[in-house]
Amino acid sequence: MKNNQAGQSTIEFIFCFIFAVSLILMVFNTSLNYAAGYVSHYATFMASRVYLTYDSNQADWNGGSNNNAVQAATEVYSKFKLDLFGIETSALTIQDFGPSVSAGEFLMIGAITRFERKMDMVGKITGETKLELISESFLGREMTRGVCGGRTCYAITGKDSCSEASMDITLYDDGC
Prior knowledge:
The chain is an alpha+beta fold. It is built from four helices and three strands; from the N terminus they run ααβαββα. It has helices at 8-53, 64-78, 103-106, 145-157, and strands at residues 92-95, 110-118, 130-137. The longest helix has 46 residues, at 8-53. The termini are far apart. The relative contact order is 0.15.
């Protein structure tokens, strides 16, 4: 048998090159997943802050104030251009329980983003495995100034409205 090793180094180079490029692509994709996660987490946090602090001074908790707060939070979230990472604005959901929220549920009011990312760019190393990434920001939701004023008025007078001309009341409260 002839002992010819011509071309052996070429075969070894090809195997090593394929392994090295696959490893580099895996590290690159992992860094993109981290970047997408960090940006989406910050966008979720900012949307949650807008939802928390939005106030239209309406006296109705479930009415326009809450709907406008959800809309304002969605607008802030969409300004982060997460579609560059393949994350749609529809991935954001606002979790709210309304005015009769229990103490345990109050801690879970905020914004949640759920999206999937491929674990592998090429799809040959890990197959078609996808990562489900979840970003949560539960900051709670304070009542509007109108609701706070109505509750304070009810506590003082026992009436639902302090807008009557016969009442000379100045409402002051350091937070409902």
